[in-house]
Amino acid sequence: VQLQASGGGLVQPGGSLRLSCAVSSFAGEYDVVAWFRQAPGKDREGVSCIGGPEDSTAYADSVKGRFIVGADYVKNIVRLEMMNLKPEDTGVYYCALETRRWNGPACPLLEVWYANWGQGTQVTVSS
User: What is the mean pLDDT of the chain?
Assistant: First the structure.
């Protein structure tokens, strides 16, 4: 499986960006795609995810109400709509995919769970 993230850039606080993750192929109903980010000098953190039999979604508390994740399974693209961006949203954003079944109530924002990773795309929020 190959993943490619794109759509990053420089945006002013309060602005919006749309990230895309192109997935080479999906294996089946248990596939989950997640977005992670890493700010300079900080650990990588989970931002949002989507997938599983019920196409569940999950968000980090810091982005709830501002970010929306969506998947187009015909085009094999997972998008992250980011609105009302803040300087603390700055970082390298990565998409990741896991095909194993997750038994929790929603997709996981656990870095160790995901086996397939794309390269990152830089998001900088600054005036």
Answer: 96
Residue 127's SS3 state is coil
pLDDT in tens, 24-53: 999 889 999 999 999 999 999 999 999 998
| H-only helix segments in the chain | none
Q: Please give the Cα distance from 53 to 73 (Å, whole number).
A: 13
Q: Which tokens go with 69?
A: 């994740």
22 in Cβ contact with 97 (< 8 Å): no
Query: Model confidence over 65-74: pLDDT tens digits?
Result: 999 999 999 9
pLDDT at 27: 87
User: Residue 8: CB partners within 8 Å, gap ≥ 6?
Assistant: 17, 19, 92, 93, 120, 121, 122, 123, 124
d(CA 81, CA 118): 18
If one counts every other C-beta atom within 10 angstroms of the C-beta of residue 15, the result is 15
Please, what sign has the CA dihedral across residues 83, 55, 96, 72? negative
Residue 112 φ/ψ, nearest 5 degrees: -70, -15
